[in-house]
Specification:
Length: 134
């Protein structure tokens, strides 16, 4: 049975209704205390590539549970009222994530155009992943 939507269709639908922040603008937000960068990548990607300094790591597979206050997996950071800027390696997972969390009612959300790859290529600061429990 053929698919009724491709990943490209989903990305196009998401990008039509979400905020995408140009990389240079995202870098300018790096020290804003009212902005939380949320890294959606797998732990292995963080260890291999580094991450945006002080970013909050939330794996893509748990995000719906972590933002929902009724979930036993809820993370308080998502109730902070801050702006959340999600990112992944290329901007695909983050676009789909922002669409999902926006549909769930989380406000003031965006993602980085081109993802972490573009962040690094544009000269954005990169930190090593903090040790577990740090």
């Amino acid at each position: 049975m053929p698919l009724t939507k491709t990943y490209r269709d989903l990305l196009n639908e998401a990008n039509a209704v979400i905020e995408t922040i140009p990389t240079t603008d995202a870098i300018a937000l790096a020290n804003d205390p009212e902005v939380v960068f949320v890294d959606l990548r797998d732990v292995r990607e963080l260890e291999r590539e580094g991450m945006i300094p002080n970013a909050f790591h939330a794996t893509r597979g748990m995000i719906e549970f972590w933002i929902d206050p009724t979930s036993p997996y809820y993370k308080d950071i998502f109730g902070s009222g801050k702006k959340f800027v999600f990112y992944c390696q290329s901007g695909w997972r983050s676009a789909l994530t922002v669409k999902t969390v926006q549909d769930m009612g989380l406000e003031n959300v965006a993602h980085i155009d081109g993802g972490f790859r573009a962040w690094k290529e544009t000269g954005g600061p990169v930190a090593t992943r903090p040790a577990k429990g740090a």
